[in-house]
């Protein structure tokens, strides 16, 4: 016998309920899945008086199977944030903006004083040791990741 299959209202509700449970369960499993990109050790140097700039540092690990790339950084604590690197030219250290940073699978990248860092410019208010500020990283594959960075004293090295 061919023809349309008729569902009763009860059957439809049962199917709908099971579908919703499956979808919600899937979302819960996805939320519990390990992230390919893990950011740790995020910190920012306290600002000196009314100086409108500072730098942030962190460690980012790629636990995934493909390269990912940091495309941009931002924080609501300042007007702008950029990826920067410190380079020595003729014995003079200079900082320059970096368009993006790649992280190979199974590797980690450390942004640390004297090397790669996040330059934070146009601070909305001075940063004092003990505070935290959010920093948002936008990655090519992983999307946006937001971390809380601890504000450390002016002399902090790690």
Which percent band covers the strand fraction? over 45%
As a percent range, the share of helical residues equals: 10-25%
The number of domains: 1
Task: Report the uncertain regions.
Answer: 16-33
Task: Describe this protein's structure.
Strands 1, 2, 3, 4, 5, 6, 7, 8, 9 and 10 form a 10-stranded mixed beta sheet that branches. The chain is built from 1 helix and 10 strands, in the order H-E-E-E-E-E-E-E-E-E-E. The protein has a single domain, classed as PCu(A)C copper chaperone (Immunoglobulin-like, Sandwich). The chain has one helix at residues 9-32; strands spanning 37-45, 53-62, 68-74, 78-89, 92-97, 101-103, 108-111, 117-123, 132-139, 143-152. Strand 1 (37-45) and strand 2 (53-62) form a beta hairpin. The chain has 158 residues and is an alpha+beta fold. The chain is globular, with a radius of gyration of 23 Å.
Task: Compose a concise summary of this entry.
This protein is an alpha+beta fold. The protein has one helix and ten strands, in the order H-E-E-E-E-E-E-E-E-E-E.
Key traits:
single chain; alpha+beta; Immunoglobulin-like; 10-stranded mixed β-sheet; 1 helix; 10 strands; globular
Topology:
Elements: H1 9-32, E1 37-45, E2 53-62, E3 68-74, E4 78-89, E5 92-97, E6 101-103, E7 108-111, E8 117-123, E9 132-139, E10 143-152
Parallel strand pairs: 1-10
Antiparallel strand pairs: 1-2, 2-7, 2-8, 3-6, 3-9, 4-5, 4-8, 9-10
């Amino acid at each position: 016998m061919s023809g349309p299959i008729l569902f009763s209202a009860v059957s439809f509700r049962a199917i709908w309920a099971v579908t919703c449970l499956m979808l919600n369960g899937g979302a819960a499993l996805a939320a519990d899945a390990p992230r390919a990109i893990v950011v740790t050790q995020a910190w920012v140097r306290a600002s000196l008086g009314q100086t409108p700039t500072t730098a942030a540092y962190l460690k980012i690990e790629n636990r995934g199977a493909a390269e990912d790339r940091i495309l941009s950084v931002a924080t609501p604590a300042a007007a702008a944030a950029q990826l920067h690197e410190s380079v020595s030219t003729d014995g003079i250290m200079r900082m320059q903006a970096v368009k993006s940073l790649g992280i190979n699978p199974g590797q980690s990248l450390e942004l640390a004083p004297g090397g790669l860092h996040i330059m934070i410019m146009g601070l909305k208010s001075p940063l004092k040791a003990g505070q935290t500020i959010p920093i948002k990283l936008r990655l090519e594959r992983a999307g946006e990741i937001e971390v809380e960075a601890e504000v450390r004293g002016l002399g902090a090295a790690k």
